[in-house]
Each structure stands twice: as C-alpha cells, then as structure tokens.
Specification:
Blueprint lengths: L14 H11 L34 H17 L3 E3 L7 E6 L20 H15 L5 E6 L4 E7 L2 H7 L12 H12 L4 E6 L13 E6 L5 E12 L2 E11 L5 E9 L2 E10 L4 E9 L5 E5 L9 E4 L9 E3 L4 H14 L11 E4 L11 E6 L5 E4 L3 E3 L16 E4 L8 E6 L2 E8 L5 E6 L12 H15 L8 E3 L4 E3 L5 E5 L5 E5 L5 E3 L5 E7 L2 E8 L3 H4 L6 E4 L5 H4 L3 E3 L1 H21 L5
Parallel strand pairs: 2-3, 2-5, 5-6, 14-15, 15-16, 16-22, 23-29
Antiparallel strand pairs: 1-31, 3-4, 6-30, 7-8, 8-11, 9-10, 9-12, 12-13, 17-19, 18-20, 20-21, 21-22, 24-27, 25-26, 25-28, 28-29
C-alpha cells in the first residue's frame, strides 16, 4: 500500500516555485533619474555591483504562504498511514540451498554482491523500512526446515538473525518450510519466500504468500559425484564433472592433490549438458585427497575432499563339521573381501551346534542340515527385504531344501517358504545376534547362485556396522552419519574448529552435518574422521534460476483496512497556517 494514494497531485507542487518567483521578482525596480535625493528619507544603494553581498529579505507571510501550499499539495495526494493495531505478523522463508551463493563470472565468491542471497537481503531491508509488522519470524529452508531464533520486531534484529543464513545446504524443502511458517505465524500472518527460482506450477495464487526470486541463468561447472572405495589392496577414486551450460562448450581444468603432492592435473572439454568421469587408483595408505576445478559462477561445487576408504575386517571362526560346506562358506567369505586374516577373538562363529557358542562378543551362524523330514522348496519365498541379511537376495528359481523344524522356531523368520522358516534371527541376553540357517547344501541350488556370496556379504557388513567407528569415511552433504562408540558421549570437531558434545540416546550416534568439510569424532581414546562434500546436481544446475515476484498478501480493498487516511492532519495544518497569515496581514495594515 503506497503512502500517497494519488501521487499525480504532486504536480500541484509547481505552485511553490511560482510563489517564490512572485516575491523575488517584485523587488526588481526600473531605473529612474531624479534631480535630487534630498527629500528621500533614505538612499537606496545600487545592487548592480560592489564587494558587499546583499541578502535576500523576504517577509514572514511568504514562508507562511509557502507552508500552506505545501500542506495543501500533500493533502491532495491522499496520504495514508499504517495503523499499528492492524499490523500483521511476517514469517520469512529463507532458501538455504547452495545456489543462493551463485555470483557472476568475475567473482563467484560467497559474498558476491551479485549473489541471490545478497540481493534478497537488500530487498528485505527495503521492505522492512517501508512497512511495519507486528512480529517477524524467520524459517530456514534446508533439507529439514527449522526456525531461526525467536520473534523480532526491528530491521536491526532481523539483520542479526540473518547471520545464520549461510546457504550451504544441498537442497531446500520450501513446501515443508511454508507449511511450518504457516503453522508458526497463524492464519493472520503474511509469508515471504526468498529464493532463486520461480514458484512451482504455471500459476501461483500466492494466498497470503509472496514469492521473491533473485536468481539468473548462468553456466556452471561442478563436481556432481565423488567416491573413494576399496578395490582390492588399493583405493579407487571416481569423480564426475558436469557442464551445466545450454549452449557453450566448456573446458574444465582440474587438479587432484594429496597434501603438497600433485596426483593429477589436466583439462577436460565438455559439451553442453554433458558429464565426464575420472577414475584414479591410489595406494590404500594415501592420505586425504582434494580435487578442485577452476573458479566459476558457484564456488561451493568446485572442490571435494575424499578420505581413505574404511577397511573393516571381521574375524570369522569357521567351525562347521562338513568339509564340503566349510569350503563353500570359506569361498563366499573370501569373495566378500570383508573377512579378516585373523580368527582369534572371533566376531562371528559358524557352527552346527544348537547351543550358543562361547564368547562374549561373537555372533553365531548355525547351520541346521538335518536330513530327516527334508523338503525341497521352490517358492514362493517370503522375504523380509528390510532386514540386513536379505538385501539384494533374489530367490526366484532357487531350490531350497531344508528339514522341517520342531516347535523351536529359532527366532524371528527372515525367509520362509509357506509356514517353514528357512532363515531366522534372534538376539540373546548378551545382545548378540544368533542366526539360524535351515539348509541341506547337496540338495539345494542356493550355493550355486549369486545369493550365496550376497548372503555372506550382508552378514559381514551387518556385523561391521555393529563394531565401534564409522562404516564409511566420505558422505554427501545432507546424509546422516552413524557412529558407534562404547562411550555415552562423544566430541564432534566441526570444520571451522568449533566443537560440539553429543550424548547417546540410542545404540549409535546419528550426526547430521550442516556444512561441507572434515569432521572428527572423539570417543575416549578412539578417534574417527569423515569428510562431507556438496554433491548436488540440482543445485549446481543454474539454468533454472529465475528472478521475479509472484503473489500478493491481500487484495487492495483488504489492504486499505490496515491504513488510515491522514489527509485531515495536513488540511488542519493548512487552516492553522492560513489563519495565522490572515492575522499578520490584518494587523500590519497602515504600518510604515
């Protein structure tokens, strides 16, 4: 709602210089020659020259007439003023995704004056100067929306809260943030979205929501994938670079370093919208590596850090009595690459006994291959696909022969055929997992299918996840990081050097890193490090960025209810000035 309802009435302000001209020009007299000045009471000095500057002397009535005209012109514009009692709460939704820091090709820095975040802050500051709100709340739209601070009322307080708007998230859940803002502000609140792309859908009604976008289409080169995995006795690094340009062929110069050592440096040539992969094999003891691209429109996706892959090896004791079955199991364990060369203090014991094997930390996998009442099963098999042991199993066409169990079902079934459990799991009093596998190998085809090594891969991976430490060392920004520790609290060292203490609320600590970089977890005498990288193709693609404003908070007739006309104030002021002017003119008549 503008302050002036009828701004065209400002044309009447032309009367102000006209009034000034009347008073100034009336003091200009024509030159006349006379015979003598002796009969004049005073001599008028010539103003045509000389070293002395004569001040312009205007009567008081001139200033009263000027003020009266100014008040009448202002009244003619129909001024309105927002009523404090009718001000509404404002909830601002801040897009926290990394693309909000995109700059131009010259700078591309996080504080670029051309970034959407900087433009949004300037526009918000202008809004808060021109309009008052009952209260102001800010909601940060990252992968999970959250509220920034408490309610504020002034622009200065808003700027202080905006310091937490870092724009380092891999995406922005704007729909969830708008829903949170609506619940936070209530039905009378007004919502403002600050982002760098257009609202979803071809038409945006914007019921109580204004959508302001400050982005712009720009080309960009980015790392969109980066992994470092075990490959035998070495590490394999996979990097993927994308050219997010609609028309231009781009050259991408990259460097891969490990500390002060340069591992590889080259230049890629990428077609528009194309991607290219880089594969690098490294010794397993190579420390953290860093890959970097030349600076462009978005700096956040030009650098990745990859730590050595985690190599957890599980100590397995194979105590199976059948030599043929023991050989089949050993081959599957070796193929997984997760079996330790040591068997002392085993973490998994393979056996045929019905009793739980000794050992306070060992899981048990018992094979029951009794041939009495054996039945071949060809399906359909019921598989609990959410269980760690069943991931990736495909049992169609498999012949699975097993004996019919008695009343003891040996735990919770994971794979069944009809009412016959084939694979069951239970947890004992020491919180060890005891797994029972009903299988007669020489009468089944399971051991000849890929399901056999997959099952043991799942078993060793599941056991590795239950050991202290990390399962992986490199994560995408936005993913959860699970850490197992034997202590009740751990210290998390952030990339910037800050620390945070975490208390265990479950069997493992679940971390949600908010910024890219290297993190360290200290738990007693143990310490683990992991890297977090921004790998978000949707954020790196700046081709969909837009600028514009959509939606309105209310209809014009509703907005007028929040504003009161102050025309009477200026009219009353003009009347007072004119009465004063009349009084001065009346009482000055006849005076010399």
């Amino acid at each position: 709602m503008p302050f002036l309802t009828y701004p065209l009435a400002l044309m009447a302000a032309a009367a102000l210089p006209a009034l000034a001209a009347i008073y100034i020009l009336r003091n200009r007299y024509r030159r006349r020659e006379v015979s003598s000045l002796m009969l004049w009471q005073f001599a008028v000095l010539s103003r045509e020259g000389g070293a002395k500057v004569n001040k312009l002397q205007l009567p008081l009535v001139f200033f009263l007439e000027l003020l009266a005209l100014a008040l009448l012109v202002t009244a003619a514009t129909g001024p309105r003023w927002q009523l404090p009692a009718h001000a509404r709460p404002l909830v601002i939704i801040l897009d926290d995704s990394a693309s909000m820091l995109a700059g131009d090709s010259a700078g591309a820095s996080a504080v670029s004056p051309n970034s959407p975040r900087t433009k949004a802050v300037v526009a918000l500051d202008e809004l808060l100067k021109s309009r008052k709100f009952l209260s102001i709340r800010l909601v940060l739209a990252g992968p999970k929306p959250r509220v920034l601070g408490s309610a504020v009322t002034t622009a200065t307080e808003v700027r202080e809260v905006l310091a937490q708007w870092t724009c380092q998230s891999p995406d922005a859940a704007l729909d969830a943030a708008i829903a949170l803002a609506n619940d936070l502000g209530g039905p009378q609140s007004q919502l403002l979205v600050l982002t760098d792309h257009a609202p979803p859908g071809s038409e945006f009604s914007g019921d109580r929501v204004q959508w302001w976008a400050f982005g712009g289409t720009q080309p960009n080169l980015a790392f969109v994938n980066a992994t470092r995995t075990t490959h035998g006795e070495s590490d394999r690094v996979l990097l993927e670079v994308a050219n997010y340009s609609a028309s231009a062929v781009a050259t991408a110069a990259y460097r891969i370093t490990s500390g002060s050592n340069l591992l590889r440096s080259a230049t890629l040539k990428l077609e528009p919208r194309a991607r290219q992969r880089l594969i690098l094999n490294l010794p397993a003891n190579t420390p953290a590596i860093e890959a970097a691209l030349d600076a462009d429109n978005l700096a956040a996706d030009n650098r990745v850090t990859l730590l050595p892959a985690v190599r957890k090896r599980i100590r397995v004791q194979n105590s199976l009595e059948d030599a043929a079955l023991r050989s089949l199991v050993d081959k599957a364990l070796e193929a997984s690459g997760l079996r330790s060369s040591l068997s002392a203090a085993p973490e998994i014991i393979l056996h045929n006994a019905r009793a739980t094997p000794a050992g306070t930390n060992a899981w048990g996998l018992r094979f029951l291959a009794e041939t009495n009442a054996a039945t071949p099963h060809t399906g359909p098999f019921i598989v609990d696909t959410a269980h760690p042991l069943a991931r990736g199993l495909f049992l169609d066409g498999v012949v699975w022969t097993a004996s019919t169990p008695g009343t003891n079902q040996f735990g919770l079934p994971v794979i069944t055929a009809g009412n016959t459990p084939l694979l069951a799991v239970t947890e004992d009093a020491l919180r060890r997992q005891q797994i029972t596998l009903h299988l007669i190998p020489d009468r089944s085809t399971l051991t000849a299918t890929p399901n056999w090594p997959i099952f043991f891969w799942n078993l060793l991976t599941w056991r590795a996840r239950e050991t202290p430490g990390l399962v992986e060392s490199n994560f995408r920004l936005g993913s959860e990081v699970s850490v197992r520790a034997q202590t009740n609290s751990v210290q998390l060292i952030l990339p910037g050097g800050g620390t945070r203490m975490l208390t265990k609320s479950a069997e493992e600590f679940v971390l949600e890193p908010e910024t890219p970089g290297l993190y360290t977890v200290n738990a007693g005498n143990s310490s683990w490090q992991f890297a977090v990288n921004l790998l978000a193709p949707e954020e790196s693609d700046l081709a969909t960025a837009k600028s514009g404003k959509w939606g309105e908070w209310e209809k014009p007739e509703e907005a007028r209810r929040e504003y009161a006309s102050v025309l009477w104030f200026f009219v009353l002021g003009a009347l007072v000035v004119m009465v004063t002017h009349l009084f001065l003119v009346t009482h000055s008549k006849g005076r010399v």
